[in-house]
Each structure stands twice: as C-alpha cells, then as structure tokens.
C-alpha cells in the first residue's frame, strides 16, 4: 500500500484586463479583474503528519516561506479549524509558477492545499464553502480554485465565469526577483495622485474577443492599470516589453503586479519563436510558451 497522500495540480494566471479603482477604506482596491488560467503549474501533495509542516522544491523555492506564513499552510490551518480538527499534514509544494511574479503562485498553492487536505481528511466541504475559505485567504485564491476564465469584482474574489472559444497562445518572460503586490498597488496610487479614478469596468470588446477566440482583437483590448506602477518600480521591464513587440508579439503587458511580462501570439509556432527570441535578447531570465484557458485546481492522485 502506498502512503496515503493527495496531489493537486493548480495553474498560474494572467490578468488580460486589470482595471483598478481608487483605494478603499480597508486598504484594498475595487477591481474589474479578467483572469485567464494558463498552463504553468504548481503541484501540492498532502500527506498525514504529526503537525503542519511544509517543504518546497523548484525554481525560487528558497524565497518561499516554510512557516505558518506560507499561504498553503494558512489554507490547511483554516480548513482544519473550520472542521474542528488538527492540521496534522505535511504539504509538499513542487513549484513551477514564478515566486512573487504576478502569476498568483501563492494563491494557487492555497487553493491546491485546501482541495488536497479536504480530500485527504474526507471533510467533504461543499464547493461554495471552499470558495468562501479561498476568499478569506486572498483576493486571487478563488480564481486559482475555479480556473478557466472569469471576471473578478470586489477585490477580485467575487467571480463570474466567462465564456472563451478555443485556446490563446502566450509567452511569459520571467524576471529575476519578484515585486511586492502591496508595493505595486501603493505605487499605482502614488502615480495617480489626486486625479479622479473611474469605476473599474471590464471592456466589452475584450469580453467579446475572449468569447469569439479572436487573438488579434484580444491583443487590441488587453490592459493593466498596474503596469505603470510595475514599470516605475522596475524600469527594466520596458526593455522586455519592447523586445517582445520587436519579435512580433500581438500584444505584451505586465502580468498583474509583475514582474513577469505576458505576450499574446497567434499560435504555438509563433509562441515558440517568440520565447526563443526573448531569451536570445537577454532582457529576461527565461521565457515560457503556454496556453490558456486551462482548468483550475485538479486532484491528480489520491491514495487516501
Ligand atoms: C495584483 C493581483 C491581480 O490579480 O495579483 P498578483 O499580481 O499579485 O498575482 C491581485 O489583485 C493580488 O491579489 P492577492 O495577491 O490575492 O492579494 P491579497 O493577498 O488579497 O492582498 C495583498 C495586498 O494587495 C493589495 N490589494 C490586493 C487586492 C486588491 N483588490 N487591492 C489591493 O490593494 C493590498 O495591499 C493587500 O493587502
Ligand atoms: N506558497 C507560496 N508560494 C509563493 N509565495 C508564497 C507562498 N506562500 C507565501 N508566499 C509569499 O507571498 C509572496 C507573493 O508570492 P506569489 O503569490 O508567488 O506572487 P504574486 O502575489 O506576485 O502572484 C512571496 O514573496 C512569498 O513571500
């Protein structure tokens, strides 16, 4: 008999539109956040243990906290408390999503840990309760659980699924080091100064391009209100965006709070060529071609 364990695969995200409102009294910002889950994955494996412990392997693992501050650990502790049990589990995170990269790696691990522990412990938490726990853990965590494409309102946690035709081809230019999400929101506020900020709204043309699977139209509609702030904090990202445009991307933008840059292409071949050109140009640490939408957190193996 193998040791009882549950492995969950969970994808990264890109924000094809991120419209950011003014700061709220609670420190968050209202958003119109159009999420797309893309095929870059972390894997979280839950195994019974005497106490809640975490290990992590993969690129950037040295920057992932292994204490109670790890979002996956917080997820396990929250689920255990909800069911009045001890969080007696070891969580191993196999990381492929860039750490602090604007691709929701920590949120992904939190969603995966919730699903893995719920399966391992047989707690059978109803889906709507799992999603409420996700929202307690972080604004992006509900989307990591559901995947696909969705519009996030409020601070990004109130989701409406979006219809998408076909598959979009992306290249992600990975940067050295991360950017702090709160610092990027603060910089966004600072750059805006006293200017009035409109209510964030999803662009109808963008939603139509997703629905129709039209990459060329999507390319004209992608937008990220956090991009000026990310560029202000990390000016070298302008070189990465320029390199992608020069190499033929349909569109390029900073992913969420950055520093990963996302490029839309018209197919798998263009994506592979663009990734090679970006790496050869030397403006990024690595470049990865992949597609979206893909499903959210998914249980792969269960030996419970
Ligand atoms: C910017 C986005 C875009 O999807 O993702 P990343 O680029 O970080 O992956 C998200 O809004 C990040 O969501 P997430 O990383 O879950 O943020 P949370 O843990 O909820 O909040 C961390 C901090 O970010 C800021 N924050 C977050 C969400 C929001 N709507 N307004 C904010 O101002 C606040 O300073 C908050 O204290
Ligand atoms: N499981 C986790 N994976 C990655 N980072 C985590 C995790 N748990 C907590 N963190 C912390 O969250 C910060 C943001 O990481 P991450 O979620 O990868 O980036 P982003 O918010 O840009 O999408 C990291 O710098 C790290 O300190």
Automatic annotation (TrEMBL):
<keyword id="KW-0418">Kinase</keyword>
<feature type="domain" description="GHMP kinase N-terminal">
    <location>
        <begin position="70"/>
        <end position="148"/>
    </location>
</feature>
<dbReference type="Pfam" id="PF08544">
    <property type="entry name" value="GHMP_kinases_C"/>
</dbReference>
<dbReference type="InterPro" id="IPR004424">
    <property type="entry name" value="IspE"/>
</dbReference>
<keyword id="KW-0067">ATP-binding</keyword>
<protein>
    <recommendedName>
        <fullName>4-diphosphocytidyl-2-C-methyl-D-erythritol kinase</fullName>
        <ecNumber>2.7.1.148</ecNumber>
    </recommendedName>
</protein>
<keyword id="KW-0414">Isoprene biosynthesis</keyword>
<comment type="pathway">
    <text>Isoprenoid biosynthesis; isopentenyl diphosphate biosynthesis via DXP pathway; isopentenyl diphosphate from 1-deoxy-D-xylulose 5-phosphate: step 3/6.</text>
</comment>
<feature type="domain" description="GHMP kinase C-terminal">
    <location>
        <begin position="207"/>
        <end position="278"/>
    </location>
</feature>
<dbReference type="InterPro" id="IPR014721">
    <property type="entry name" value="Ribsml_uS5_D2-typ_fold_subgr"/>
</dbReference>
<dbReference type="Pfam" id="PF00288">
    <property type="entry name" value="GHMP_kinases_N"/>
</dbReference>
<dbReference type="GO" id="GO:0050515">
    <property type="term" value="F:4-(cytidine 5'-diphospho)-2-C-methyl-D-erythritol kinase activity"/>
</dbReference>
<dbReference type="InterPro" id="IPR036554">
    <property type="entry name" value="GHMP_kinase_C_sf"/>
</dbReference>
<comment type="similarity">
    <text>Belongs to the GHMP kinase family. IspE subfamily.</text>
</comment>
<comment type="function">
    <text>Catalyzes the phosphorylation of the position 2 hydroxy group of 4-diphosphocytidyl-2C-methyl-D-erythritol.</text>
</comment>
<feature type="active site">
    <location>
        <position position="13"/>
    </location>
</feature>
<feature type="binding site">
    <location>
        <begin position="98"/>
        <end position="108"/>
    </location>
    <ligand>
        <name>ATP</name>
    </ligand>
</feature>
<keyword id="KW-0547">Nucleotide-binding</keyword>
<feature type="active site">
    <location>
        <position position="140"/>
    </location>
</feature>
<keyword id="KW-0808">Transferase</keyword>
<dbReference type="InterPro" id="IPR020568">
    <property type="entry name" value="Ribosomal_Su5_D2-typ_SF"/>
</dbReference>
<dbReference type="InterPro" id="IPR006204">
    <property type="entry name" value="GHMP_kinase_N_dom"/>
</dbReference>
<dbReference type="InterPro" id="IPR013750">
    <property type="entry name" value="GHMP_kinase_C_dom"/>
</dbReference>
């Amino acid at each position: 008999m193998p040791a009882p364990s549950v492995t969950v695969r969970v994808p990264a995200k890109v924000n094809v539109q991120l419209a950011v409102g003014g700061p709220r009294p609670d420190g968050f910002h209202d958003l119109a956040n159009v999420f797309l889950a893309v095929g870059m994955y972390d894997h979280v494996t839950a195994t019974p243990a005497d106490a809640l412990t975490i290990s992590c392997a993969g690129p950037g693992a040295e920057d992932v906290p292994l204490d109670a501050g790890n979002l996956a650990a917080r997820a396990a502790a929250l689920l255990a408390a909800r069911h009045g049990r001890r969080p007696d589990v070891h969580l191993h995170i196999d990381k492929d999503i860039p750490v602090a990269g604007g691709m929701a790696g920590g949120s992904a691990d939190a969603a995966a840990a919730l699903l893995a522990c719920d399966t391992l412990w047989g707690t059978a938490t109803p889906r709507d309760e799992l999603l409420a726990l996700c929202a307690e853990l972080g604004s992006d965590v509900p989307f990591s659980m559901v995947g696909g494409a969705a519009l996030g309102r409020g601070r990004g946690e109130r989701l409406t699924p979006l219809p998408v035709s076909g598959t979009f081809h992306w290249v992600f230019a990975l940067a050295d080091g991360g950017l702090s999400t709160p610092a990027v929101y603060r910089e966004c506020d600072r750059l805006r100064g006293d200017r009035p900020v409109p209510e964030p709204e999803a662009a109808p043309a963008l939603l139509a391009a997703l629905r129709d699977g039209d990459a060329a139209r999507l390319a004209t509609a992608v937008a990220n209100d956090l991009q000026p702030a990310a560029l202000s904090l990390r000016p070298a990202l302008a070189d990465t965006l320029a390199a992608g445009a020069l190499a033929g991307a349909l569109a390029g933008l900073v992913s969420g709070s950055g520093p990963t840059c996302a490029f839309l292409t018209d197919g798998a071949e263009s994506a592979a060529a663009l990734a090679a050109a970006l790496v050869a140009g030397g403006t990024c640490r690595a470049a990865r071609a992949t597609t979206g939408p893909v499903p959210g957190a998914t249980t792969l193996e269960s030996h419970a």
